[in-house]
Every structure is written in C-alpha cells, then in structure tokens.
Amino acid sequence: MKNILTSLVLLLAVNLQAQTITVDGTPMLVSSDTSFPFWLQSGSSISPETPVSSISILEFNIVSNANGNDMVFNQVLSVSSIATVPEGKTWKVESVLQENQSFEVSNANSSLFIPTNSSSTNIVIEEASLSLSLSQATISGSILPSGGSVISERGFCYSYSNPQPTVYDNLTSLGSSTGSFENDYGFYSMEDTVMYVRAFATNIEGITYSDVITYVRPSVYIGQELEGGIVFYIDETGQHGLVAALEDLGQFEWGCYGTSISGADGKAIGTGYQNTLDIVAGCSQTPIAASEALAYESGGYSDWYLPSFDELKEMYNTIGNGGPEGNIGGFVNDWYWSSSESNNYNAWSIDFTDGGTTSSSKFNTYRVRVIRAF
Questions:
Q1: pTM (whole model) above 0.70
Q2: How far apart are alpha carbons 365 and 348 in whole angstroms?
Q3: Under a CB-based contact definition with an 8 Å cutoff, are residues 305 and 370 in contact?
C-alpha cells in the first residue's frame, strides 16, 4: 500500500521452544513464518500463546487522501492477551517477547525498541529525477548485500517539515529484498513547498537510513492558477508554458465548411496561435471558434487563442478528465474544438469525457476553451 506509515524494528526473540501466536483463531509459528513481520486489518484478532508472553504491535490510523489511504503512526502496543484491531486502525506485528526476556530501549527515543547488537545495512539513495511538467519526482534507492540478516522491509520515509524524516513520519513500503527500488512523489497540498526523503531498510538487527534528499516544489507547476488561467503545460525551462482560460467561451462552429484554410494545419504544441490567426484571415464567417478566441479578454490578458490538437490533448491529459488530479479545469463532458484543420470539411476535436479524438465536420457546434502562452 502506497504512502503507508510503518515504523520501528524490534528484536525477534529466539528460543528453542516454539514461538506461537494465534491470529483469527489460527495458531502461527512465528519463528518459521516467512511473512513476519506482518499487518492485521480492522476486525482481526491476535493473542500470544506459551511461551510467548506479549506481542509488540505498532498501531496506525487509516487516513483517506486523494490517492487512496495513508497510514499514520498512532502508538506502540504490547498485547498480552487476546485483542482485536479497532475500526479505522491497522496493526503491524513486529516481534514477540518470551517470559524473562527484555528489549534494550534507545535513550534517544524511549518508545523505540532496538536490538542490543544492531548493525547497519549498506543503503544508498539517488538524486531525485524531476518531472517539472507534473511537479513530481521519481526517487530511487538501492540496498547492497552486506552478508547480514535478511531484509524484512525497505522503502522511503518522507516529511514536508522534518529535515531528517524517520519511519514516524510518512512512509512508503517497497518490498523486502536487496537491490534497487523507486517511487514517485509529488506535492498534494498547496501549503507544501519542500519534501525531505530518505530510504530505509530493516532487518532483525535494526533499521538503517540513507542520506536525505531535499525536493523543492517548482515555482511553476501543473494546476497552478497563473497569468489569467490554469497551467496545463510547462516547457523544458520550467518557467514558461501554456495556461487554459478558467472557463469555456461557449459553443461555436469551427467555420468555413468546404473551404481549405491555408496554414491552419499545425497540430504540435506551439502551433495553436498561428493556426488561429490563419483561420480568421482565411474565413470571413463569424462568429466561429477562432474569431471568438482572438476577441476574448480575461484576467487582464487579450492574447488568447484556440489550441492546436496537441495543445488541446495536453490540456485533457493534465487538467481534464485524463489528468492525475482529475478534472481540475472545470471542463464539461463534451467535444472541444482544436484549431487544427483536417481537410476542407473537417477539423480535429477531442471529447473531454474520455479523451476520444476525431476529425469532425466544421459546421458542428462544439465547446471552446482558449489558451495563452506565458
């Protein structure tokens, strides 16, 4: 589960006797259970059985967010009799404790149990690979074999406020082996501007962290309201791109059915403005999508135009129904005109319901959402 907050590694007690617990009525020999440590969902029950005297458990609150659920650390529990996971919680069973045994407690954190003879694991984190167009970073890590205990969990922990994030902050668990691993991270709150990330790995001997990577939100990002519109495309500079108007102009014909408009066939990003000029120059019919686009004024700007096919497609894929955050541009589930002519009788359009594209008859009345460069 993405962005689950895990924590702590406890020493798994070793004894010649079988170490047994009961989960949902089923006895489990934890010393031979390859899935240990493991997670329990709400409603599950657990109890220690002789010679186990108590079970150390990390409790997390399940918190919904735009991408699913986060798991936020709540408390450390010691279960000495049958217990049930409460509603809205999940438990991570980390270790068992037998009679007459004890854990060493870290002086730095009295709630963090650590083994007496902990050793580090070779773990590194790579510099973030940033995608400026999505305000997102791909973070990569790697664990090198060290000849020590088997890795029980690995992943990344991150924070928007703590420069040295730990497993008490936000965490993404990514398996239980050595080798490379990666995950994508972005900013999901407008208040967050900096993210601190580092890799972690745990085994029976302890927990090890990598160095910290600091990821700063780009000054311009997709979905930002900027210069009269909503940013939906950012070029390679990270400072310039395209914004869509905050609302549709209305519904208009593309215009001049049966007439070839010289120069209005550009489809690539960056061709929409010239297409729009060429349409108005070659078609005297009004009102049409292109003429209304050039006449539009909003937010103190008057340099709006009808997007090219690729510009319109990018709009759908970033701030329309195809975007990672869903339809944040306020689009209607309907067809929208591009400025890209197909032939004398047709021009390219996109259905913002599902991203479908077609070469439509120019006399169709479709919606218009204008754009401008910044």
A1: no
A2: 13
A3: yes
